Amino acid sequence: MGTGTYVSSATLATEGTNLQNAINVAGNGSFVGITSTGAGGGNVFFQAITAGTAGNSITITSSAAPASHFAPASITFTGGANGQANIMAFNNLYTGGCTAPTPKVYWAYDTGNAASAVTSPVISLDGTQVAFVQNAAVVGSLVLLKWKANAADNFNNPTDLTGVATNVTPANYPTCTAPCMTTIALA
Description:
The protein is mainly beta. The protein has two domains: 65 residues, no CATH class; 99 residues, no CATH class. Helix content is 10%, strand content 30%. It contains two helices and twelve strands, in the order H-H-E-E-E-E-E-E-E-E-E-E-E-E. The strands form four sheets. Strands 7, 8, 9, 10 and 12 form a five-stranded antiparallel beta sheet that branches. Strands 5-6-11 form a three-stranded mixed beta sheet, with no helix packed on it. Strands 1-2 form a two-stranded antiparallel ribbon. The protein is globular. The termini are far apart. 22% of the residues are buried. The model has no long low-confidence stretch (mean pLDDT 75).
């Protein structure tokens, strides 16, 4: 655990920033399973480090701090989504064995809808794109994906490609910036 220090202030915005810094410095947040994603106007925003419902078991409770300090009511994280990757790539897969360099996740993506890749991926000639078929519920779809390496990705914490900026229409796919994808329904 790091040595982040929370410093009280007469200004709520400064207290919020100080609390955010104390959580995020030197891995303190990983010790308790949270990170602070921002502070503004005296509000501090927390996020579970563990993706999905496993991160919902964290509870933030009030302390005996003076009223000028942050003293939240009991807050329990809720609403976690399934954070498992649908498709992932590895680096150093066939080198090192049990010694360095060991295999590492190169990138991992959640392509949404609790889908699963049902075919082997096909890699483009230049290696910058991947195509595969996935199924979600009853409908299958062809996924075209432009990847980008991300050392922070792993199986339980993939990059979510379901957002508006990363899940584009087939017409916008040729010009989207990696990482991005498009899906074409096969029904």
